[in-house]
Amino acid sequence: DTEVTQTPKHLVMGMTNKKSLKCEQHMGHRAMYWYKQKAKKPPELMFVYSYEKLSINESVPSRFSPECPNSSLLNLHLHALQPEDSALYLCASSQDNVEASPLHFGNGTRLTVT
Amino acid sequence: AQSVSQHNHHVILSEAASLELGCNYSYGGTVNLFWYVQYPGQHLQLLLKYFSGDPLVKGIKGFEAEFIKSKFSFNLRKPSVQWSDTAEYFCAVNLNQGGKLIFGQGTELSVKP
């Protein structure tokens, strides 16, 4: 089983709702990531946090707002989403954000926007 | 733009057949290469990785991959597949840009018992 825990497993929300996705790891990793994966597609990088600071934002719309309260936790705040934002949202962590560190993925949150 | 290409969208094999999945990347700089597997209903797991040294790397579950720098390729191989290898396989390249990992389109492998 994975050591990266994501909650909730499933989420259905309306376009006017505000919700948050949560991710937690206790491996002492200092880099954390959000990826978005549509069906039959590869994961697409959204954000990278390194030592609790946002280091990469892949031009993600502002209706997605990441937060890293501490080195073990990563949140993704959602507001005013569109139906096309429905996807599997994956959290990952790595020892640090240097290139040799493999990513450890969570099981994901399957988001449906109605 | 940097990209990762996996040649096969869906591969169907019988048990005990040999497997080779192609992966090419387009990036001129130093890269680190990975293969990840996603079993049905499970999270992405690391199969193997290449950073430097011996271009033939061995991973878990009998998988191996060969890095050929001149061909910008990192193909995945297994001599004899099992039904339990049925999964989606992703090649990924880290571009040495602060943790930016780019995935290929994925190859769905179906192994018939």
What's the total helix number of chain B? 0
Describe the largest sheet of chain B. Answer: 6 strands, mixed
Helical content class of chain B: under 10%
- SSE arrangement of chain B, N to C: EEEEEEEEEEEE
Mean pLDDT of chain A: 93
Amino- and carboxy-terminal Cα gap of chain B: 41 Å
**Structural class based on helices, strands and sheet pairing of chain A:** mainly beta
Largest interface: A-B, 29 and 25 residues
Order of helices and strands of chain A: EEEEEEEEEEE
Q: Mind telling me the C-alpha Rg of chain B?
A: 13 Å
Shape of chain A: globular
Taken as a percent bin, the fraction of beta residues of chain B is over 45%
Low-confidence region ranges of chain B:
none
Radius of gyration of chain A, whole Å: 13 Å
Question: Roughly what is the average pLDDT of chain B, rounded to an integer?
Answer: 92
Number-wise, the strands of chain B total: 12
Percent in helix of chain A: under 10%
Structural class of chain B: mainly beta
Low-confidence segments of chain A, given as residue ranges, are none
Principal-axes geometry of chain B comes out as globular
What are the salient characteristics of this protein?
heterodimer, A: 114 residues, mainly beta, 7-stranded mixed sheet, 4-stranded antiparallel sheet, 0% helix, 56% strand, B: 113 residues, 6-stranded mixed sheet, 12 strands
Describe this structure in words.
The complex is a heterodimer of chains A (114) and B (113). Chain A has no helices and 11 strands. Chain A is an all-beta fold and 114 residues long. Chain A is globular and about 40 Å long. The model of chain A has no long low-confidence stretch (mean pLDDT 93). With 113 residues, chain B is mainly β. Chain B has no helices and 12 strands. Chain B has strands at 3-6, 10-14, 19-21, 23-26, 32-38, 44-50, 56-58, 64-68, 73-78, 87-94, 101-103, 107-112. In chain B, strands 2, 5, 6, 10, 11 and 12 form a 6-stranded mixed β-sheet that branches. Chain A binds chain B through residues 2, 4, 31, 33, 40-45, 48, 50, 55-56, 90, 92, 94, 97-108, and chain B through 31-32, 34, 36, 42-46, 49, 51, 90, 94-106.
